[in-house]
Amino acid sequence: MSGKALNIGDQFPNFTADTSEGRIDFYDWMQDSWAILFSHPADYTPVCTTELARVAALVPEFHRRGVKPIALSCDNVESHKGWIEDIKSFGKLSSFDYPIIADDKRELALKFNMLDKDEINAEGIPLTCRAVFVVDDKKKLRLSILYPATTGRNFDEILRVIDSLQLTQTKSVATPADWKQGGKCMVLPTVKTEDVPKLFPDGIETIELPSGKGYLRITPQP
Ligand code: BEZ
C-alpha cells in the first residue's frame, strides 16, 4: 500500500512526527518559510552521512533563501541523536541545525511514496529512497525528485533549482540548462512581442534558428 502520488502544484499534506528536535506539526514548524524535506534509507549508512553533513554545512544558504531543511530517516529519535554525532564528526561541524524526522514505522515513507522496492534491508523491508520535496510558503509542492538509495544527491543543484523557482515566480522568465544565479534567462514563450519593451526595458536578444520561429529569446537576469 502506498500513498497518493504528489504532483507539482499540489498542496503538500500536513503531518505530525517525532524528530531529533522534538515532536513537530509540519505546517507549524514551517511557519511562513519554504521547506526542503529530504528522505534517507537509514541511519548509520555511509552515503546518508555525507548528505546530512553537506546539508548541515549549507543551512545558512537554505536560510538565506527562506528555506528550512528537514530530513527523514526510518529509525527512531534515539538512533538519530547518536547518528548526528557521527555526522558532525564526519562533516567537522560544530552544530547540527535542522531536525531529522523519526519514521521508524515508515508511515510517512508510505504516505509520500518514498519507498525504493529495489533496496531491501536485512528484515526484507524496502528502504526509503532519496526523495526531495521543496514546499513553498503557501504549502504547495514546488519540486519533487527521487534518487535511488545508491546515489547521493547534489545539494548545490537543489539550491540552484530553488533560486530558479524563486526567480521565475515573480519574473516573466525561465532559466536555461545549467543556469546559475545571475546568468542569462529565457523570456517566457507566453510573453507577446508587443509586451517585451514594457517587461524587458533593457532589450532582449532573439536567436535566429532554422525554423525562423523566433522563440529563443534571451535576457539578462531580471
Ligand atoms: C548509504 O547511505 O550509503 C546507503 C543506504 C542504503 C543503500 C545503499 C547505500
From TrEMBL:
Annotated GO CC locations: cytosol; mitochondrion
**Stored InterPro entries:** AhpC/TSA, Peroxiredoxin_AhpC-typ, Peroxiredoxin_C, PRX_1cys, Thioredoxin-like_sf, Thioredoxin_domain
Q: Which gene encodes it?
A: Dsim\GD22792
Q: Which Gene3D superfamilies match?
A: Antioxidant, Horf6, Chain A, domain2, Glutaredoxin
Q: Which residues form the Thioredoxin domain?
A: 6-167
Which Gene Ontology molecular-function terms are recorded?
Answer: peroxiredoxin activity
What is the official name of this protein in its record? Answer: 1-Cys peroxiredoxin
Query: What catalytic activity does the UniProt entry give for this protein?
Result: a hydroperoxide + [protein]-dithiol = [protein]-disulfide + an alcohol + H2O
Catalytic residues at: 48 (cysteine sulfenic acid (-soh) intermediate)
User: Which organism is this protein's natural source?
Assistant: Drosophila simulans (Fruit fly)
